[in-house]
């Protein structure tokens, strides 16, 4: 299947996709700040440059887009019909990099939280997700992950 736009237009469209200060990230930041948490943004000195770092709690938070980071079973995780091999290789690289970053940060004593875009995409889910993340930050667990499916099922707190 051919792309519906020309290469130049597609390139311009893709270059507009931001890696920092995305809507889900800003929503999460505002929610945590309102709950009294203070954090650093995208520290250049940390491996993987987490979206948020809460030094007081030794927590690194990643806000992952479901499409780019391949959230398993999520309705927002799709594969483009054109250039499938290119996309599959790109997604595989993203997943490997995420795993490496989590492993290295964990080995350095950091606690890791991954908040999937789908968990904070709608305001009705965002508040619950931020509450669960806040509880986990205070609780001292090693690893936290939350997606849309976790909001109905459980507290989303897991140990590595």
UniProtKB/TrEMBL annotation:
<keyword id="KW-0255">Endonuclease</keyword>
<keyword id="KW-0540">Nuclease</keyword>
<keyword id="KW-0234">DNA repair</keyword>
<dbReference type="GO" id="GO:0004519">
    <property type="term" value="F:endonuclease activity"/>
</dbReference>
<comment type="similarity">
    <text>Belongs to the Vsr family.</text>
</comment>
<keyword id="KW-0378">Hydrolase</keyword>
<dbReference type="Pfam" id="PF03852">
    <property type="entry name" value="Vsr"/>
</dbReference>
<dbReference type="InterPro" id="IPR004603">
    <property type="entry name" value="DNA_mismatch_endonuc_vsr"/>
</dbReference>
<keyword id="KW-0227">DNA damage</keyword>
<protein>
    <submittedName>
        <fullName>Very short patch repair endonuclease</fullName>
    </submittedName>
</protein>
<dbReference type="InterPro" id="IPR011335">
    <property type="entry name" value="Restrct_endonuc-II-like"/>
</dbReference>
């Amino acid at each position: 299947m051919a792309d519906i736009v020309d290469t130049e237009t597609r390139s311009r469209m893709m270059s507009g996709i931001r890696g920092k200060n995305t809507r889900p990230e800003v929503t999460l930041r505002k929610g945590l700040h309102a709950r009294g948490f203070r954090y650093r943004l995208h520290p250049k000195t940390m491996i993987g440059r987490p979206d948020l770092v809460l030094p007081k709690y030794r927590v690194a938070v990643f806000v992952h887009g479901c499409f780019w980071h391949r959230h398993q079973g999520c309705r927002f995780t799709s594969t483009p019909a054109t250039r499938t091999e290119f996309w599959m290789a790109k997604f595989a690289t993203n997943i490997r990099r995420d795993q490496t970053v989590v492993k290295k940060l964990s080995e350095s004593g950091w606690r890791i939280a991954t908040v999937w875009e789908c968990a904070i995409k709608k305001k009705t889910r965002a508040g619950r997700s931020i509450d669960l993340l806040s509880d986990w930050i205070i609780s001292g667990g090693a690893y936290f992950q939350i997606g849309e499916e976790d909001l109905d099922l459980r507290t989303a707190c897991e140990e590595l």
